[in-house]
Amino acid sequence: MRNWPLFDLSITTPLLELRLPSLDDLDELADRATEGVHEAGFMPFFFPWTDAEPAERARSTLQYHFRAWGSLAPEKWSIDFVVVYDGQIVGTQGITATSFAVTREVGTGSWLGQRFQGKGIGTEMRRAVLHLAFAGLGARYATTEAFEDNNPSLAVTRKLGYQEDGITVHDRQGRPAVTRRFRLAREEWAESPGFEIHNLAACLPLLGLPG
Fold first, then answer.
1. What pLDDT does residue 39 have?
2. Is the pLDDT of residue 108 over 90?
3. Has residue 97 got a pLDDT over 70?
4. In the chain, domain spans
5. Mean pLDDT on 72-76
6. Segment 41-62, tens digit of pLDDT
7. Least enclosed by CB within 10 Å: which of 18, 24, 101, 170?
8. How far, in Å, CA of 81 to CA of 7, rounded?
9. Among residues 101, 108, 146, which one has the least CA distance to residue 129?
10. C-alpha distances in angstroms, 169 versus 1, 38, 51, 175, 180?
11. Long-range contacts of range 200-205, CB-CB < 8 Å, 24 or more positions apart?
12. What would the pLDDT profile of 159-174 be if each residue is shown by its tens digit?
């Protein structure tokens, strides 16, 4: 799309393709949300969007991406990729920033359909957006945060070399819950072979960077 080059942006890895979703991609992503993202009785998200009926989870998945498209600006942006594995949409991986041209700092967030977990996909999709951040956008830092009982997310974070950066206490469904914050500096990032960014240059002005 000539006037929205982000739709041409993608990242490929040995296992995955991350791309801005088409409407059909979003429909398939919504199917993953209806199938389930985590075990019952556990809430890994700050906003408990998965605590809903399957049809409502599907709608909220679509609406989240529509809002991200509509609110993207150079001063504050969120790029939310769908993750393609073996020809299927299996989850979503986001990268966000505020005043990136000044801060050179990004955050990440993701979810993966429950039946696709435990295959190394979560680690590789995080590696992909770190490659975009550091190799493509020139970030200095990447941050992430997860509840201290979200062991899969914490395992990915530690595997990729992040350093602990403090804690935050949240109201999680009416109860206090601690999250652990992490930070990865560019100097501590290990580039992985076989990761490629496609069609980034035309997107840079939308992210507050020179084209």
1. 63
2. yes
3. yes
4. 5-207
5. 97
6. 665 565 565 566 788 888 888 8
7. 24
8. 10
9. 108
10. 42, 22, 20, 10, 9
11. 200/9, 200/132, 200/136, 202/5, 202/8, 203/5, 203/6, 203/8, 203/9, 204/137, 205/74
12. 999 999 999 997 877 7
What six digits make up the tokens of 43? Answer: 């809430």
Distance between CA atoms of 158 and 79, rounded to whole angstroms? 23
Separation between Cα atoms, residue 127 and residue 83, nearest integer Å: 12
Tokens (6 digits) for 95: 């990268």
Share of the chain above pLDDT 90, in %: 67
What is the 3 state secondary structure string of the chain?
CCCCHHHHCEEECCCEEEECCCHHHHHHHHHHHHHCCCCCCCCCCCCCCCCCCHHHHHHHHHHHHHHHHHHCECCEEEEEEEEEECCEEEEEEEEEEECHHHHCEEEEEEEECHHHCCCCHHHHHHHHHHHHHHHHCCCCEEEEEEECCCHHHHHHHHHCCCEEEEEEEEEECCEEEEEEEEEEEHHHCCCCCCCEEECCHHHHHHHCCCC
